[in-house]
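dude i think i finally got it to work??
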Amino acid sequence: MNSPARMALIAAEVRQQHGWTVQELATRAGVPVGTVTSIESGQATPINISQVHQVFRTLEVKILALPSSLVQDAT
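look at this
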């Protein structure tokens, strides 16, 4: 994945394949709904990296790299 738009497309498509709503994915991943919404919006808004990993782990999608525009330190 190399852009926020590509991440958004993949996250939304895989979530829908699972038959989950945004709320269901957020609950399953243990992250705020806003995190899922931000990922799926494709906007280059910094998000907590551990939450991004948790969302994609829940979706069973491997991410090899995150766009630097999305990375926000967990500190």
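The mean pLDDT is 85.
im so relieved honestly
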